[in-house]
Design a protein that fits this description.
It is built from 19 helices and 27 strands. The protein is α/β, with parallel strands linked by helices and 558 residues long. The chain has a domain of 112 residues: ANL, C-terminal domain (GMP Synthetase, Chain A, domain 3, 2-Layer Sandwich), CATH 3.30.300.30.
Length: 558
């Protein structure tokens, strides 16, 4: 394990190995194994910014990954180097992700929407040496961001998915087109294989402090979750998995996701967009059997008026995760899309909870199911850490063979987030109903906007830097599509005014991701305080919910 990463106690390691959860495989191993077993089976379909539609068999995918891995060694990437990956759903993500694993380097997951504020923080926290980006995406120039990171953030090499790069940057397509492996022995990469107990990936926490915590996932732990998630979801070599959520998300990688597909020799299809036209066209063309999506996206599919244009009869299962799915809408999935719905509560820190494919409709539509493994230990506790009776709401605590024992180099946060005996305090408020979990909200101060967890404190600190603002409180407001949106309550300096557009422009100048911007601003003279003198966000959430309800009622009356 890396310095600053907590390990499992020996007694737990022995238990997880003896019970078959930890198999001693690396993420690179599972690609090699499927390439050996299914060399001519399609492994990956996606759209590259360089080559357009790309279709790789397992043999070709393995060749590209090995070729790129050797090139990475040649340009100076070494084991345990941290490389930030900020790609959309393109094949180059696959190539670089698996190539890094082949040589024991560590991908650091980053979303395309992140900007300088988020990326520079990641660089400093992990000591990143590398940075993988597209050249441009949706009008944003990532090359300029990469140049800024190289100039100020300690980045030594920039790996670009695209046709253009700035001086000193490396085009991935040029490396992938150079058969360097022909100049090396066939077994050259075996010497670089990492220890399965080492950190394989850094995921990002949603964060409640404005500073996302880094989640160290090991090869053993990550593949444990991937394998058993795939088995529970019924993955086989004939599964066609469609990734509609960002490929860097834990949801898309392992719950189940691209790991699961590679583990069982199945095909992964990468959707550049989750919009209905893109998704339904891919389902029809690739005969997709299993797709992931957040509730907001599924709702857009359910309401799509041109669905009859497409043959989506191959689709067997949609798995919903990332935020709570309204039961009244969830039950429409089998009716309108003619497939099964599976629900999951997953966390990048570890625990995955699933409904089973053969569960009753009541369980599937109204709960998120049960933990993946028998050794996923859970507790539901009150504010004092005492177990609550079944049916009552409490915070979900967990530990198990793929749940981390601590964040990376975060002693203070670890004291708050983990118990002395290794339980992770998830912050999810749940209740247990007939053995299944029902999600009731979050204890932590975050807004869950369509599956993206946004720290209220982060946005508050930025708003407070505005010269017109005396104080602010950021809360969630209900939204029928995304689940929650961001509302900023603001107390202004006397005699000043501020509009939502002005506030959003100010926040954009801080170079933060656009999905973090408030979507409503409420100007108030004072805040209601709790008995201990804190802003009562509960009252603010009630206030904005009531205002929205009145506005909706007025709109209907009109």
């Amino acid at each position: 394990m890396l310095p600053g990463c907590s390990d499992w106690p020996m007694e737990f390691e022995k238990r997880y190995v003896s019970r078959g959860y930890w198999e001693g495989l690396t993420i690179g191993d599972i690609l090699d194994r499927s390439a050996w077993a299914f060399p001519e089976r399609e492994a990956l379909v996606g759209v590259s910014p360089v080559w357009g539609e790309t279709r790789d068999t397992y043999a070709v995918l393995q060749m590209k990954v090995n070729r790129l891995a050797i090139h990475l060694l040649r340009i100076g990437v070494t084991p345990l180097d941290r490389v930030i990956m900020q790609f959309p759903n393109i094949p180059e993500f696959f190539y670089l992700y698996f190539a890094l694993h082949k040589i024991g380097a560590i991908p650091v997951m980053c979303l395309p929407a992140h900007r300088y504020a988020e990326v520079s923080y990641l660089c400093s926290q992990v000591g990143a040496r590398g940075y993988g980006v597209p050249s441009t995406l949706r009008g944003f120039n990532y090359l300029e961001l990469a140049k800024e990171m190289r100039d100020t953030g300690g980045i030594e090499y920039v790996l670009v998915a695209g046709r253009e790069a700035l001086p000193g940057m490396v085009l991935l397509n040029e490396l992938l087109e150079d058969p360097i492996e022909e100049r090396y022995p066939d077994d050259y990469l075996t010497a670089w294989r990492p220890d399965p107990n080492e950190v394989a990936v850094f995921q990002l926490s949603g964060g409640t402090t404005g500073i996302p915590k880094l989640i160290p996932r090991t090869h053993n732990g990550y593949l444990c979750c991937s394998k058993y998630s795939a088995m529970l979801a019924g993955f086989t070599p004939y599964t066609v998995f469609l990734a509609t959520t960002p490929v860097a998300h834990n949801f898309t990688i392992t719950s189940p996701g691209i790991h699961a597909a590679v583990f069982f020799g199945a095909k992964s299809v990468l959707a550049l967009s989750p919009n209905p036209d893109t998704v339904f066209a891919l389902i029809e063309k690739e005969r997709v059997t299993y797709a992931n999506a957040v509730p907001a996206v599924i709702i857009s599919w359910l309401n799509y008026d041109k669905l009859s244009k497409y043959d989506i009869s191959s689709l067997e299962v949609i798995i919903s995760g990332g935020s709570k799915f309204n039961p009244e809408i969830a039950h429409l999935v089998p009716e309108r899309l003619d497939c099964k719905l599976q629900q999951t509560l997953g966390m990048a820190e570890g625990l995955n909870v699933y409904t089973r494919l053969d569960d009753s409709g009541k369980i599937i539509f109204e709960t998120v199911g049960r933990p993946l493994l028998p050794d996923d230990e859970i507790k539901i506790v009150d504010e004092e850490g005492k177990d609550v009776p079944p049916g009552e709401i409490g915070e979900l605590w967990t530990r198990g063979p793929y749940t981390i024992r601590g964040y990376y180099q975060a002693e203070e946060q670890n004291r708050e987030a983990f118990t002395p005996d290794g339980f992770y305090k998830s912050g999810d408020l749940v209740r247990l109903v007939d053995g299944n979990l029902v999600v009731e909200g979050r204890r932590k101060d975050v807004v869950n906007r369509g599956g993206e967890k946004i720290s209220a404190e982060e946005i508050e600190n930025l708003i407070l830097s505005h010269p017109k603002v005396i104080n602010t409180a950021v809360v969630s407001m209900p939204d029928p599509i995304l689940g929650e949106r961001i509302c900023a309550y603001v107390i202004l300096q006397p005699g000043t005014k501020i509009t939502l557009d002005e506030l959003r422009d100010f926040l954009l100048s801080k170079q933060i991701a656009k999905f973090k911007l408030p979507e409503r601003v409420e100007i108030v003279d004072s805040f209601v305080l709790t008995p201990v003198g804190k802003v009562s966000k509960k009252d603010l959430r009630v206030d904005i919910a009531e205002k929205l309800a009145r506005e909706n009622q007025s709109a209907k009356g009109a």
